[in-house]
Amino acid sequence: MASYSQFLTKGKEDELRSIANAIVAQGKGILAADESTGSMDKRMQSIGAENSEENRRKYRQMLFTTEGLEKHVSGVILFHETIGERFQKTDDGTSFVDVLKKKGIIPGIKVDKGVIPLAGTQGEGTTQGLDDLNARCAQYKKDGAQFAKWRCVHRISGTTPSHTALVEVAQVLARYASICQQNGLVPIVEPETLPDGEHDLARCQKITETVLSYTYRALNEHHVFLEGTLLKPNMVTAGMSAANKPSNVEIGLATVTALQRTVPVAVPGVVFLSGGQSEEDATKNLNAINQVATKKPWALTFSYGRALQASALAKWAGKDENVKDAQAILIHRAASNQLAALGKYSGDPNADATASQSLFVANHAY
User: Fold this and answer.
1) Residue 153 is inside which H or E element, if any?
2) Of 75, 152, 299, 361, whose CA is between 20 and 30 Å from 189?
3) Is residue 77 classed as helix, strand or coil in its secondary structure?
């Protein structure tokens, strides 16, 4: 006899499984548009625009109303001010959730409340937001969200990540995932190992394997229904300050190897974060991951924010007359990443300087 009580009905399990599988179907991926107001301030500053609620609304409207986006993007992660009838809408009064649903794109929601210092460690952190998460998830489900995202981070150094941080982050992610599933939301589990540092590829692979090992032990301890989850990890790369930069092929093999050693086959898909890579590097590395000729029992696709938006944002520049051109760039990047998720991307000889520019931000928070 099981030593725990089954907390999900078969109907709820079937719903969660169906949502998770739909998000990672046919090489499609996720547009992460869940930037906080503070992060949007940095985006707006980069184009010389004011970080006003109206400018944020117009920018998100540009993204979500892009014609044909649904051919390449299956889901969009939203921020609190963008979801529900109470919040942002298009010029004609249609809620952003309804815009996405009409396209067949699945709305999701960022539910964590940010990384805070973890006392007693050397610069490590945990993520807050559990206290009222159950009530917020219930409301977000009513507002139309079908999945959620929660980000935790680890740093690689000579002394980190510590056992304390590894356990704390894994337990927080497991508790979040369990609460989401009780409310009918597919949890995207994001234990990001930051690219800051001088570490080499092998060190990142070992740390990534350790982080994922702790994560899945905790998910199992909390009896999380893995078939109704998705994983959002970092790719295995050398640190941004490393002396030697690995090739796309080396990154692909190291990443797949780390996943093989840690991620259960019950998980439907892995949706990689871009982690400050340039748009073009994020696409090439995703392609290399999918071209590794070995066992890959999960869909391997993208959940990109900056690596989908950077060039489109620069082209938009806060001007209504640039909307169509910006949307064309967004579609191009989304289509490129869908090809990469199928292992069929051959590069972009016409990629402009923006697409090749590093998007790395030290100690990135959003």
Assistant:
1) strand 147-154
2) 361
3) strand
Could you give the percent of the chain with pLDDT greater than 70?
93
DSSP letters for 259-304: HHTTS-TTS-EEEE--TT--HHHHHHHHHHHHH--S---SEEEEEE
As a whole number, mean pLDDT of residues 174-197 equals: 97
Q: Which of 58, 232, 284, 315 is catalytic?
A: 232
End-to-end CA separation in angstroms for the chain: 44
Query: What is the SS3 assignment for 106?
Result: strand
Cut 0.85: pTM above it: yes
Can you name the residues that pair with 77 across neighbouring β-strands? 32, 108
User: Given 15, 35, 190, 192, which residue is catalytic?
Assistant: 190
Higher-confidence position of 68 and 359: 68
3-class SS of residue 88: coil
Strands 106-110 and 186-193: unpaired
What is the C-alpha to C-alpha distance for residues 289 and 22, in angstroms, rounded to an integer? 21
pLDDT 10s digits, 74-105: 999 999 999 966 789 999 999 999 999 999 99
Would residue 190 show up in a list of annotated catalytic residues for this protein? yes
Active site residue 232: yes
User: What value does the mean pLDDT of the chain take?
Assistant: 94
Looking at the chain, the whole-number percentage of residues with pLDDT higher than 90 is 91
Q: Which two tokens stand for residue 111?
A: 């539910």
Strand, coil or helix: what is 110? Answer: strand
